Amino acid sequence: MRGVRRLLVAALLVATVVTAGAAPASGSSTQLTFFEAGSRLLEPRREAATFAQLRELGVHALRIELRWSTVAPRPTSTRAPRFDATDPAAYAWGAYPSVLARAKALGWSVLLTVTGPAPRWATSNRRAPYVTRPDGLAFERFMTAVGREFSSEVALYSIWNEPNHPAFLMPQWTASGNPASPSIYRHLYQHGYDGLLAAGIKSPKVLFGETAPAGYDTVRPSRDGLLHAVAPLAFLRSAFCLDAGYRRAGSCSKLQIAGFADHPYTKAVGPTWVPPGGDDVTIGSLSRLSSALDRAAAAGRIPAASPIYLTEFGVQSYPNRRLGVPASTQAEYVAVAERIAYDNPRVAGFSQYLLRDDPLGGAPGASVHGGTVGFQTGLEYSTGAHKPLYDGWRLPLAVYPRSGGLSLWGLVRPASRPTTVSVLVGSSSGSSRFRLLTHVRTDASGYWTLDTTTMAPVWKVRWRSPAGKTYEGAAVAPY
Questions:
Q1: For residue 347, which phi and psi values (nearest 5 degrees)?
Q2: How confident is the model over 6-17, as a mean pLDDT?
Q3: DSSP category for residue 166
Q4: Dist CA 123 CA 52 (whole Å)
Q5: pLDDT grade for 4, boundaries at 50, 70 and 90
Q6: Are strands 206-211 and 259-262 parallel, antiparallel or unpaired?
Q7: What is the pLDDT of residues 406-452, one digit of tens each?
Q8: DSSP states along 89-104
Q9: What DSSP state is assigned to residue 369?
């Protein structure tokens, strides 16, 4: 952990051994890294500039949320309008066609998460926030329209955002305190999958889950208790009709899923932290999810070896002092988290959320309790000023202690072929002066590793692009 910094001398020690090379074959060098820029891409006046900014950062894949109520006809009406819900022409798609077409022209992969709120007329109680028991058949018809409109631009679909959280799907619990949202979500997923089939997409690639990282296994049947999230693995078991021992419980059929999506946010203590709740899944406890999926496959509920997609992730930074870390630490933690994902061959996708911080203000806590703080996980502050993570995301660097020295892992994200990166060392954590240690050759995807006996308190990398522009990553300490 970060305590290793106290073991490092303040002055730079000259290395006696440096072993450099491209990243080992065991890593997930084909892993997609999705970027979610929030609403900025969907604002027509910002679309072109945001795409240019993302290209310069080295983005190659996007996660975009498509909210049903945003594009549906008469979304606030209590009665469903008369229209052909499978016809794309019936919807007000807004900026979505332009954004997805531009991403396709750039050759970027798109994960489209189709989610709520639902139109008011497609909910069971017709009450805000319009996430209570969405109508499955209406959602299926909507997904048919989505597939017909965007099938050529979308590589991967997922259905519903954080369905184990009451801000996005309700009810989460039955009156007796048992999970209710898993069966509601399974119903939505099956209808959504059928809708894509009806759109003419053969064997659509659809992710299941999109789960929030933490919650409860059971709750007391009270108003506040029923507004808690369901723990992701408890949600998984119930959605796949499994008991606590991952044995079949019910008559569920096998689901066709292209993978399981999770949002493995962690706390300010760091990315290797393992939560005490055995059914929570953070970046530091991914083995729990791997094991759960294997057991679900063994029970015949899902395909074997279903991959994991970490479709929403970020590290909160100051000025959020309740959940955040210093901005320099954010860059370090994000790089360490990405290395954790890279080192796990089960993980097919990682992600960054957001580009720019949400404005800070209002009450903390979940939105169902009135919280409005938002996320401060961006590469930029809400003012647009760059954080260290801005440069750190383009050139992530993770430094780990190992026997006799340090192990470095990094990525030149804008690289499209093997390239050379310069490794720099500094003599103190606050120093602006760095010395060149060595040059490292990357693999074709831009990944590289380095083992060294040099012990220094701060590290960074420098890269010169083929166009002649020089970039430097964020300064990071050994973790």
A1: -85, 115
A2: 37
A3: T
A4: 39
A5: very low
A6: parallel
A7: 999 999 999 999 999 999 999 887 777 999 999 999 999 999 999 99
A8: GGS--TTHHHHHHHHH
A9: G
Q: Which amino acid is at 124?
A: S
Two tokens, residue 79: 């009665």
What are residue 458's phi and psi, to 5 degrees? -150, 145
Tell me if 334 sits within 8 A of 396, measured CB to CB: yes
Q: Could you check whether the bond before residue 275 is cis, i.e. omega within 30 degrees of 0?
A: no
The domain ranges of the chain are: 2-20+401-472, 31-313
Q: Are 353 and 337 in contact (CB under 8 A)?
A: no
Whether the predicted pLDDT of 92 surpasses 70: yes
Question: Which H or E run contains 335?
Answer: helix 327-343
pLDDT band at 314 (very low <50, low <70, confident <90, very high): very high
41 touches 63 (CB < 8 A): no
Q: According to the CATH classification, is domain 31-313 in 3.40.50?
A: no
Could you tell me which of 97, 168, 183 has the C-alpha nearest to residue 132?
A: 168
- What is the pLDDT averaged over residues 20-26? 57
Q: What is the C-alpha to C-alpha distance for residues 272 and 153, in angstroms, rounded to an integer?
A: 36
The number of C-alpha atoms within 13 Å of 117 and in the hemisphere containing its C-beta is 17
Give the residue among 352, 309, 308, 319 at the shortest CA–CA distance from 334. 352
| Angstrom distance (rounded) from CA 44 to CA 24 | 42
Q: How many whole angstroms separate alpha carbon 236 and alpha carbon 231? A: 9
Residue 13 binned pLDDT confidence (cut-offs 50, 70, 90): very low
Q: CA–CA distance from 475 to each of 444, 465, 478 (Å)?
A: 25, 19, 10
Say what the alpha-carbon torsion angle 44, 45, 48, 54 is, to the nearest 10 degrees: -90
Kindly give the pairing relationship between strand 347-353 and strand 308-310. Answer: parallel
Q: How many residues does the chain have?
A: 479
pLDDT in tens, 354-385: 999 999 876 655 555 555 678 999 999 999 99
Please state, in angstroms and rounded to a whole number, the distance separating the CA atoms of residues 124 and 132: 6
